[in-house]
């Protein structure tokens, strides 16, 4: 299989107001067996455009650097096989590659994800006992290990309508951080309580359980059902359950 | 001065945000130092995130017979006794606490039935020793350190590349970096500096490393005059992916073999039984039945009484065996060997090796629960690097510390799997601690020579104004192919000599690349700036390899195929940039090992009778 493939890639930078300005540019390169989208981008850099910007590191779906939108879908470029892309792309039309659209643009395929780093800092860290030898079972570990497999690719955030359409980056922590919060709240040794923040600062109420985030997660985390819904349920118990409310008022927790 | 740059001041500047850099940062901030962490990619994306199999520490959770003494002995034996025994001792003693501490900070490793940190078998480790979480241990490690680190007050400068280190009156005084995103220029003044820049394997065409592994950290230390040790020792991991071509080199964790994976050739023969070296003969099974007994005990979560399968020999041995099978015409379909774990129940494979399952399914369309993988050697790790004081981690340049893959000493001629992650934690901590302590004793930031800054600025911007030259990607590709061919897994004197010549030609090409574009997030420009480091690193490797006329660990010479214990087995190479501006090679010995530690080693291996 050595066919040519044409990629239509976004090239551009934000203007002074931060509005993405640029154009879609076509590049045609040869394609070898087993290539992924990122390989094609690298070939474009090597043969046509050394200054085409993109992020990557591991090339194996482990670092979450190479997030982009390929044919309109949020994906890791390094884990998206050209075979599959060619199947879904109508004949004689180029493969369209754009940066994540929910985030501000840096350049070409690179998005500015500083928001994620800033938000992460506001989350109260794990508070556990001081001694070093901890015992807990695999069953307890299993509950949170799923959340800990997050590679921080931000594809879920890019897909969530609360971010993408409504740009509520200041009010809503987004699926990635509900995964992180669930990890902390369900951590077998954690003693901190972040529920009030989850309700007020992180705006979990905005999530209306559309499951779009879960659909795109390359780590296969069941974001909506295993992280968000249990957090919502805990909030209901904590804030709307009359007995729990009284117990809380008289300091019985 | 025509170009603007921003000046920053920090007590401790840490270059690198992998496991070593972050662990150093946590320690240095704990001591009250102001700390900057500078890294080329974003926080949490450093190479450490890719580590799979686990972190080695003699916790003795899984096999009560384990102890720091055995870990020390295994590390020295695996390193073919060229290790700095003082570092091997500290590492073996302290890594259990470093792992436990991670759990305290939120890491969740897989558990034993008793609720303790589980441990997995790996090549060269006598007992199950690697704390792990499935096959994504690096992610757990870096995320835990990252989450801990961001609350310590360290300042992170991400997507910055350090290009130069400054010395003032013989002491390290700061560094120069450019911001990859906006092309801005920065001078960091520091009382002490920690290099934690990882490895160099990108110098080879088939490697498990990312674009970050161009060896700039090694080059920075060399350029500023630090002693570089053991640069001939590069670890070729036996199991990288080999098909399809675009994934060539991507790692297949040793955990597959730790979980019972078997290697076979095109004739279906389990060839590793034919490659057990004399020094390991007592410890490895010599029949398939015995090997199977061992695996069955592991699967059943029992302490094995049988000896381990030869697939778990050290990496240098397995990589060379796969290579020899290929030379003998018994390679797998695409030129490697078959690695089979599909005999274990599907559910177990998916639970223990989820990343590998996913990786092969997505990238090679191979279901590892049903069919064998195809694997072959891939450049994976460099044992060589900056020579450091075994306790403080200070290099031979006062004020410059080094930890993690960029430093040398712990691993000798060959690193055991899992010993790197524990290396990062153990020596990252020490580097952070001693760098902060030393910084506290330095009153003022030293002045940095303005002319030197001006020169570095000029060099940094030069590629952007060049026109009509080659695409830097092409030069890098050719360089990597040359290194693969001439300074690869099997080396020969005349090829190494050729490589040294070729490298000078690459230097000429490097000087005239023209990436085009602007200073804004321009990978072509970044790559043009990296080639100089790659050339010097490659040269160090070739030079040290040419001198070492024997085969040992990660260094194999076709023209000198056996180890020479009497001479080479006792000396380590050192490279420095001499005052004439040339690369100078010499050989040194570590101080003699103390008797109480020597007793832990296998007397037969020491070859003292020959002295
Ligand atoms: C696929 C794979 C699997 C592995 N699995 C295991 C395993 O199971 N167990 C084990 O023990 N080891 C394993 N290793 C080895 C181990 O992961 C690495 O040796 C280790 O992570 C290196 O850590 P580090 O902190 O030294 O550097 P890294 O994690 O590589 O970090 C280097 C940092 O330095 C920065 N940097 C580099 N140059 C510059 C510069 N010029 N300016 C600014 N910043 C710079 C980078 O951006 C990065 O932040 C594996 C390696 C690979 C590739
Ligand atoms: S389930 Fe919630 S978080 Fe996920 S995409 Fe839908 S609204 Fe967003
Ligand atoms: S939860 Fe999934 S999609 Fe979201 S950042 Fe993590 S890995 Fe990516
Ligand atoms: S490059 Fe790491 S996830 Fe794609």
Structural description of this entry:
- The complex is a heterodimer of chains A (253) and B (611).
- Chain A is of the alpha+beta class.
- Chain A folds into 2 domains: 3-111, Beta-grasp domain (Ubiquitin-like (UB roll)); 114-249, Fumarate Reductase Iron-sulfur Protein, Chain B, domain 2, CATH 1.10.1060.
- Chain A is built from 11 helices and 7 strands.
- In chain A, strands 2-1-5-3-4 form a 5-stranded mixed beta sheet.
- The longest helix of chain A has 18 residues, at 223-240.
- The mean pLDDT of chain A is 93.
- With 611 residues, chain B is of the alpha+beta class.
- Chain B folds into 3 domains: 6-235 and 380-440, FAD/NAD(P)-binding domain (3-Layer(bba) Sandwich), CATH 3.50.50; 237-377, Alpha-Beta Complex (Flavocytochrome C3, Chain A, domain 1), CATH 3.90.700.10; 464-588, Up-down Bundle (Methane Monooxygenase Hydroxylase, Chain G, domain 1), CATH 1.20.58.100.
- Chain B has helices at 19-30, 68-78, 85-104, 137-149, 216-223, 255-258, 288-299, 315-327, 346-352, 354-364, 419-440, 450-465, 472-486, 493-511, 523-547, 595-598, 603-606, and strands spanning 6-15, 35-39, 55-56, 119-120, 130-131, 155-158, 160-168, 171-179, 185-195, 228-229, 234-241, 262-264, 337-340, 373-382, 385-386, 400-402, 572-577, 583-588.
- In chain B, the strands form 4 sheets. In chain B, strands 1, 2, 6, 7, 8, 9 and 16 form a 7-stranded mixed beta sheet that branches.
- Chain B is globular and about 75 Å long.
- Chains A and B meet through helix 1, helix 3 and helix 4 of A and helix 3, helix 4, helix 10, helix 13 and helix 15 of B.
- The complex binds flavin-adenine dinucleotide (FAD), iron/sulfur cluster (2 copies) and FE2/S2 (inorganic) cluster (FES).
- The site of flavin-adenine dinucleotide has 45 residues of chain B, from helix 1, strand 2, helix 4, strand 7 and helix 5.
- FE2/S2 (inorganic) cluster (FES) binds at residues 56-59, 61-66, 76, 78 of chain A.
